Amino acid sequence: AGVTVETDVAVIGAGPVGLFAVFECGMLRMRCVVVDALDAIGGQCSALYPEKPIFDIPAHPQIEGAALIERLETQAAPFNPLYLLGRRVERLRGLDGTWELGTSAGDQIRARAVILAAGAGAFGPNRPPLDGLAGYEASGAVRYLVARREDFRGKRVVIAGGGDSAVDWALSLKEIAARVTVVHRRPKFRAAPESAARLDEAAARGEVEMAIPYQLHGLAGDGTRLSGVVLSTLKGETKTVEADHLLPFYGLSMELGPIADWGLGLERTHIAVTPATCETNLSGIHAIGDIATYPGKLKLILQGFSEAAMAAHAIHPRVFPGEALHFEYSTTKGVPAA
Ligand code: FAD
């Protein structure tokens, strides 16, 4: 499983800053592979505020998160980056002057240099702290997204959470599942009002069972196959709901994860870099955007863009040793046709 590729620069993180790094590297004739844990590019802009206007991107008095990402993708497109999405970079090791990265999908990426544009870390689901969770995750009994709705036909499904995902999937899966139980701590849902109202109506008709106010307490089963989900109230009263699947929808969180173990100089949850090059304590590994820190750092997209330019210029001699780098404006150089 996975792909084996060689490239000039491996970019970890397809947020706004990682995407602009592809452009800056491309202008210096360096090819990029971009890896992101999410299934879509755009980092925080896409995952957290696609429809919110941003007001401090130069020359855009106002631009929504998703629109900014679309333009950055278009700007990087002439340089044909390879996007490897839906996988996390787990391993990084140095091999005679190059770096090798391993992902959760089994990819092997060999690169002359690495640009870490990993924000606050990889996005992943918020997981409930339940004993034995890993075994049920591995078997697919506990899942954080619905990739194939048909998987739940005729199954007893427990959905936990109070946001749009919980409500929308309860409404969708009730059509095909044997039973759907929604577990939430309070009667009020943080979902689109029409959807929440439809869920109340479905519950009144007995199409969905509501376990309110309950929270997840434990998993019953043989360690891989689930037989029930144990719920508890805040007072500690418990009950078990028979179930084949548990779908916790508790939102996304970011965690530095494996990056913390790569021997990089950390300042709490950030990576310390030399400002002029954005190089970390490891030669050939540069950090830019939200994850990078130095005196005077501002965690702003526009500052990340300038760090992308500095990192690309600093990396050039590693990719083209002995070749002089003449500074040129984009107006002089132009870009290849996309
Ligand atoms: P991110 O956008 O965080 O992207 C990092 C990516 O790296 C993620 O997609 C993550 O999944 C991936 N990743 C991390 N580790 C791994 C790994 N090991 N393997 C694979 N992938 C990995 N900034 C402004 O300048 N102006 C604003 O008005 C503004 N408004 C904001 C409003 C909100 C609500 C929020 C939440 C943020 C706002 N920001 C704003 C901040 C801005 O979004 C961030 O500064 C910006 O997204 C940082 O970009 P980045 O590319 O460094 O990282």
How would you explain this protein's 3D organization?
- Helix 1 (16-27) packs parallel to helix 7 and helix 5 (164-173) packs across helix 6.
- The chain has 338 residues and is of the alpha/beta class.
- It has helices at residues 16-27, 43-47, 65-76, 133-139, 164-173, 193-204, 301-319, 330-333, and strands at residues 4-12, 32-36, 53-54, 63-64, 82-85, 89-95, 98-103, 108-116, 122-125, 156-160, 179-183, 209-211, 215-221, 226-232, 238-242, 245-248, 252-255, 266-267, 270-272, 285-287, 292-293.
- The strands form six sheets. Strands 1, 2, 5, 6, 7, 8 and 20 form a seven-stranded mixed sheet that branches. Strands 12-11-10-16 form a four-stranded parallel sheet, covered by helices on one side.
- A hairpin with a 4-residue loop joins strand 13 and strand 14.
- The longest helix is centred in the last third of the chain and has 19 residues, at 301-319.
- It is built from eight helices and 21 strands.
- The structure holds flavin-adenine dinucleotide.
- Flavin-adenine dinucleotide (FAD) binds at residues 12-18, 35-38, 43-45, 48-49, 54, 56, 88-89, 117-123, 257-259, 289-290, 299-302, 304.
- Flavin-adenine dinucleotide (FAD) binds next to helix 1, strand 2, helix 2, strand 9 and helix 7.
- Its EC number is 1.18.1.2.
